[in-house]
Amino acid sequence: MIGYIVVGMAFGLLVQNIGLNFLWAGLISLTVYAGSMQFVMINFLSGAGSLIEVALVTFIVNMRHMFYGLTFLTRFKSMGKKKPYMVFALTDETYALLCSAKVPANVEPGLFYFLIALLNQIYWITGTLLGALFGSILSIDTTGIEFTMTALFAVICTEQWLSFPTRIPAIIGLICAVLSLNLFGATNMLIPAMFAIILLLTLLRPALEPKIRKLEEEEMEQCQL
Amino acid sequence: MPALNPLNLLMIIAVVSVVTIFTRALPFLFFAGNRQPSKYILYIGNILPPAVMAMLLLYSIRSATPLMYPYGLPEFISIAVVILLHVWKRNNLISILCGTLCYMVLVQVVFAS
């Protein structure tokens, strides 16, 4: 919970920092609701990239979300009118909570899941608005505050470096990004880097797939009813 | 001030929102029956996140100038601070907050132009 408010605040602060007020920040957290992607998006909102690039980058960055849905195919089926919201709100955090939370005995599971998802987004939006408002009254020199984004990505990379079954994808991602930055420049680097990453990971599939097989199995087990 | 007008901004938000919803709804749209996604898609989806995050980390410091003053030092030092703190404490808040403060001090005071 605290995590969502804090990262939400960082996001609100950064939106404020590129000259957009709390209404924009709130609108994004209401309609997009995707942690890392909202941070990447700040680059687009300050003028980097075409709409095609925006769409492609969003798809690649959020591709992992399609696996969350696979886990919940049957569980969401009986949720009626709540189902569309559950699908919309299936973020990393909500997925992890839904996997680990135990439904209390006297509560209908569907309602319980729905409230978890809804509360998570309320925390996220609250954090966003607080961050944006805080940013608007802050009178200190905020030069460099955009590093919050880099720090967030560095934290996620560190976590993955320590826990992911293989470090090869992280190394490939970094090398492709460095090459692409030098070959295509700062404004055009993302798309070539993404294609190079997917190509290399595809070529290395025979070597890498056995390494992550355990991960796939664990994922399935973790979230079984 | 942002270089884009409100309509541009709304279009970007709409595209990100729709594509995000699409990635979340994909399994419910296509794999609802007994159909399973192909092994290749499963593989790419599982192996991609660390590669994408590493790419985004570099993308977020793309404006650094490693060959000119301050030689990317503020970025390099601050990222090192984040990583060390995170390996030590494993606390997102501490890592992000201290890393950002470190960077702000470096660009405002130490490497001020």
Q: What is the terminal-to-terminal distance of chain A?
A: 24 Å
Mean pLDDT of chain B comes to 91
Helix content of chain A: over 70%
The coarse silhouette of chain B is extended
The helix content of chain B, as a percent range, equals: over 70%
Helix-strand category of chain A = mainly alpha
Helices of chain A, by number, come to 12
Gyration radius over CA of chain B: 20 Å
**Main sheet of chain A?**
none
Low-confidence segments of chain B: none
Number of helices of chain B: 4
Protein architecture, described:
The complex is a heterodimer of chains A (225) and B (113). Chain A is mostly helical and 225 residues long. Chain A has 2 domains: 2-163, no CATH class; 165-225, no CATH class. Chain A is built from 12 helices and no strands. Chain B is built from 4 helices and no strands. The mean pLDDT of chain B is 91. Chain B starts with 5 loop residues before the first helix and ends with a helix. Chain B is extended. By secondary structure, chain B is an all-alpha fold. Chains A and B meet through helix 1, helix 2, helix 3, helix 4 and helix 5 of A and helix 1, helix 2, helix 3 and helix 4 of B.
Which terms would index this structure?
heterodimer; A: 225 residues; mainly alpha; 2 domains; 12 helices; 74% helix; globular; B: 113 residues; extended
Quick structural gist:
With 225 residues, chain A is an all-alpha fold. Chain A contains twelve helices and no strands.
Please render the helix and strand layout as text:
The complex is a heterodimer of chains A (225) and B (113).
Chain A: H1 2-17, H2 22-31, H3 35-45, H4 51-62, H5 65-72, H6 83-88, H7 92-100, H8 109-137, H9 147-163, H10 168-184, H11 190-203, H12 205-222
Chain B: H1 6-30, H2 39-60, H3 73-89, H4 92-110
Helix pairs in contact in B: 3-4
